[in-house]
Amino acid sequence: MNTILRKSILGIAGLAFTGGVFAGPVAAHAATPAHAGKPMAAVASVQGEQSTITLNEEQTANAKAIIAATKKAGMNERAAVISIATSLQESKLENLGHLGDRNDHDSLGLFQQRPSSGWGTPEQITDPEYSTLAFLKGLKQVDGWDKMPLTEAAQTVQVSAYPDAYAQWEKQATDIVAEHWSK
Hints:
The protein is mainly α. The chain has seven helices and no strands. The protein has helices at residues 3-12, 57-72, 77-91, 122-125, 128-140, 150-158, 170-180. Helix 2 packs antiparallel against helix 3 and helix 3 packs across helix 7. The radius of gyration is 15 Å and the shape is globular. The termini are far apart.
């Protein structure tokens, strides 16, 4: 499905995209990137300036839950890197409940998914395994997700108002996956 058609469908659905608001599980396919067909390692080259945070026990447990869910979905380390980078951007790997006035609409959980956009119930979205599997289901629907830059793959699923923000977490997400994938 091309970008114009996808945007039209999303517009018809009445979805307004502001910082961190998601469209829900994607059914769209991204355009083929210029580097398609070239083999890529499990980790693509990191783009742009990188951010990093020190993880506490809860954040580390959430990263491990994302890795476990990725394995359960039968997906590879690259999918885990994209998932963790996305969660680092959306919630800093914190499983966020309703934040009151600070909440972005009804966004919840590790990926700031919205019940009103079809991601699941609040209880489901705040379950790390469920929310990761929902994100990965969307990722699987993106043609060539494993060959495109992380930020493009994440953005196609999340539909954020800040599409380039995911890239800043690629190095840390890669390091987290490298540390915990085989454990």
